[in-house]
Amino acid sequence: MSGLGLGLLVVVLLLATAFGLWRRRTDGRFSEPARPVSMTESRSVLTPDQLGQPLGEHATLVEFSSAFCAPCRATRTVLHRVADTVSGVTFVEIDAEASLDLTRELSILRTPTVLILDSTGTIRHRASGQPRYADVVGALGAIHPGLAEVSAPTLDSGGARP
After folding, report:
1. Total number of domains in the chain
2. Which of 34, 120, 126, 141 is the most exposed place for a label (fewest CB within 10 A)?
3. What is the spatial distance between Cα 58 and Cα 143, in angstroms, rounded to a whole number?
């Protein structure tokens, strides 16, 4: 292999490694959704009709998933566990392919994408990728401080990523 080819290979490997490390660091982290200028008020709020079930008393966890998505299964398990552990929180799974209009309206670009809604259905947090249990509970605590305190004893069991 020539010196130029070897140098190119090293550069490509370094770029791929940097991208992988960045992706690992940001994947599944919750953020408050940036609201584009063009987004209407109704798009930042999801209704029980859109979800197909009532909102949670304190919060609702919404996962957009797809049939071929392996991280979606692990995310479903984490979100079910949070909803079972934290009082007043419900979990809703939406098939992104079966709900294309809603998926497009909310700019869901990959699965899993998790939205955390407050008790009124307002989207308060969003994460693309597989979130950790502790991150979900932390985001819930930012919406309703009492929720994080209720579930604090369970944070150590299952907070690690696979």
Report:
1. 1
2. 34
3. 9
How does pLDDT run across 67-99, given as a tens digit for each residue?
889 999 999 999 999 999 999 999 999 999 999
Distance of CA 162 to the CA centre of its chain: 16
Q: Which of 108, 115, 113 is nearest to 143 (CA)?
A: 115
Nearest residue to 83 via CA among 64, 65, 66, 59: 59
pTM greater than 0.70: yes
Residue range of the domain that includes 52: 30-154
**Any idea what the CATH number is for the domain that residue 40 is in?**
3.40.30.10
Residues 89, 61 contacting (CB under 8 angstroms): yes
Query: Percentages helix, strand, coil for the chain, rounded to the nearest 5?
Result: 45, 20, 35
DSSP-assigned beta bridge partners for residue 117:
60, 123
